[in-house]
Amino acid sequence: MHILLFFLLGMLFFVILFVPVFLLGVLGKIFSLFGKRSEARTKNDKGGSAYSSRKKIFSKDEGEYVDFEEVE
After folding, report:
1. Contact 40, 33 (CB under 8 A)
2. Burial of 50 (0-12, 13-18, 19+ CB in 10 A)
């Protein structure tokens, strides 16, 4: 009898804590995808692309490839 009670309380605990957190995560992901799409659409409607507002962060001399030199 006690095992059944602990099982039911455990399931209730699981449902109360984990199911709402999971559902909120899924809903948040869905809403963020729709938000990005509508933001890209409004920027495209204004004549610019969604990526036109981004600026280059690194200077010209950073991030260039150099010849490999083995150190012995």
Report:
1. no
2. middle
CA distances from 17 to 3, 7, 36 (A): 21, 15, 29
Sequence-distant (≥ 6) Cβ neighbours of residue 49 within 8 angstroms: 43
pLDDT at 70 over 70: yes
CA angle 23, 25, 40 (to 5 degrees): 125
Could you tell me which of 41, 59, 61 has the C-alpha nearest to residue 50?
41
pTM for this predicted structure: 0.39
Residue 46 reports pLDDT greater than 80 = no
Q: Which residue has the tokens 């200077």?
A: 59
Tell me the pLDDT band of 12, cut-offs 50, 70 and 90: very high
